[in-house]
Amino acid sequence: MQKKLIVTVLSLVLLLSITAIALGCPVPEVASVSPNNGLNNQSVNIVVSGAKFHKSAYVKLTKAGQPDIIATNLEVAKEQITCAVDLSGKAEGQWDVVVVNIGSMSKKEKPAVLAGAFTINAPAVKEVKPEPTPEPQLQPTLIPTPVVKVDPNKDLKPIYFDFDKSNIRDDQTSALDLNVRILKDNPDLHIVLGGHADERGAKDYNIQLSSRRAQSVKKYLVDNGIDANRIVIYAYGEEYPLATGHDESSWWQNRRVDVSLWESVPTKEQALEKGTK
User: Fold this and answer.
1) CA of 247: how far to CAs of 12, 158, 159, 160, in Å?
2) Most CB within 10 Å of its CB: which of 55, 63, 104, 123?
């Protein structure tokens, strides 16, 4: 009799624990998004307002027949999420705004949709009138002095991470410190941090994981004197592996953040050109 009572009590405790975990990640409520439009040649910072946003939440824009636009640089509060969406090359028209809470234990996704809440537009095309051709003038021939330009990107180091982690490893600080020196030596250039993940895990989760890794690198750089306004983050998830194998000898190379310098801010696709080779 005593054993049956103990089993019953333990079952109740387990049931209450599971219920508490389920209640800990509610279905979110989405009320509005601001701004509610953008051009398809830019990245836009948006604020999603509502309620019951869980710390695990992620945001995406969806449209029938189009690939999802996964938001990056998320800052999540209970009633507001601040994030960035890359609209470059995306289809014009109305897109649904989707907020998804992910259960801490079950990993079950709980989405909320604000239908047609965000509009993507094409930039206006201005007519350019040709300028009159000036009269040719004889100019003295100048022999230019050759300028040797050294690309600082060749010395920048990628930063590697453990599986399913976004914290900076102790063995990566020396590479980060080297990068800090190079970035400080080129104060007029923009900094792009490209976050990556290995192939394990859901695609959307890996996008968020690679974004968190890039955010960790950004924090280290800013804490060591780099201007945050110079830094742009792109999250690629598992889409662009450096190594294509299916074991740890390849996976560790894909769990990384690439650091690159640019004279002007590149698109997400252009930024891949200076990633780890």
Assistant:
1) 42, 20, 19, 16
2) 63
The total of structural domains in the chain comes to: 2
pLDDT tens profile 97-155: 999 998 766 678 889 999 999 999 999 877 677 788 877 777 766 666 555 567 899 99
Within 10 angstroms of residue 232's Cβ, the number of other Cβ atoms is 21
Domain that holds residue 48: 29-121
69-70 and 29-34 as β-strands: parallel, antiparallel, unpaired? unpaired
Distance of alpha carbon 30 from alpha carbon 9, whole angstroms? 39
pLDDT in tens, 23-81: 557 899 999 999 999 999 999 999 999 999 999 899 999 999 999 999 999 999 999 99
User: Is residue 107 classed as helix, strand or coil in its secondary structure?
Assistant: coil
Task: Give the C-alpha separation, 107 to 169, whole Å.
Answer: 26
Give the domain-ending residue among 99, 121, 143. Answer: 121
Q: Are residues 106 and 174 in the same domain?
A: no
Alpha carbons 217 and 195: distance in angstroms, whole number: 9
**Strands (DSSP E) found in 146-205:** 159-160, 190-195
Residue 132 lies in a domain: no
Within this chain, do residues 179 and 243 fall inside the same structural domain, yes or no? yes
